[in-house]
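We emphasize that the prediction below concerns an isolated chain of 330 residues; any contacts that depend on oligomerization or on bound cofactors are therefore not represented. The input was used exactly as deposited, without trimming of termini.
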Amino acid sequence: MLRAGVRLAAEAVGAQGACVLARSEEDPDRWTLAGAYGRIEPAGRDVRFPPELPLPERATPSGVVLDPAPGTGLLDPVSGARVRTLAAVPVPLPEQDRPEALLVLYDPEGRPAFGRRDLDVLLPFGREVGAVYQTARLHLAQQRATLEIVQSLVNTIEAKDPYTRGHSQRVTRLALAAAQELGLPPRDMEVLRQAAMLHDIGKIAVRHEVLHKPSSLDPAEIDLVRQHPLTGARILEPLSWLEDVAQVVLQHHERPDGKGYPLGIGGEDLRMESRILAVADAYDAMTSDRPYRRGLGRDEALAELRRGAGTQFDPAAVEALEAALRGEGS
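Result of the prediction step, given as a token string:
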């Protein structure tokens, strides 16, 4: 949203370049580059304004134009380069005095400097951006709170079974390491991270005596356990922002050959995140001690994954996990 806003602000006043900076929640004196547009090459993401140029304070509340004498220029704290002139306006949040973001615009095209008329255009724009920014932050906070509640349910399940305690955390670490090897995009990495943490949420509907049965399960019990991906997806389904996560949870026991569960789908119908999660989940299950058996060693578990590559497991995901484990020496 901020990146789109900086482009529109620059176009509104004919600036050659512009950037938007967001204030750090941990350190109010540190600002982070949230977006840039046009002829500006930021020196880095973190920005600190020197004492001689306290731009956020000078720009608050009515904006500021800095237009030094001809031939001198300004040393821009964002790019570290000299610029001829700049304008800055605050992006305040509703009912807050200090700005949470700052719009900075450089070198207007076709005229000597920015002026009051430009600030009159930019100030209302900054307030509107601030209102939308606040709504987005509140929405993200609500999402985090909801996710924490769902995660607490997973922790409750694991707390009942000393043999699976920490399973979700271990699977998450393994899955992300494999995904890194495969070069998964950041958005897909985040979907995978959340799905790995929540993949067993559906086991909350499986009876305790079935989950912890020390002997083999009968056919009816096996069928009950095999419903947990579907149950997990249904638990997450009402949370529209977890739609992709729910799909990965639903598919994490499916197989490339179509012989998995609960839907029996395979091939190209399986998301890459689901394939990675299936491999990480199987590896942790094989290497963990259970009441009826000791866990396998790393090499034995990897050999089992290789044997199932192409049928039970995605070959690329198996290779990626093996490379990640060898890279960390575990």
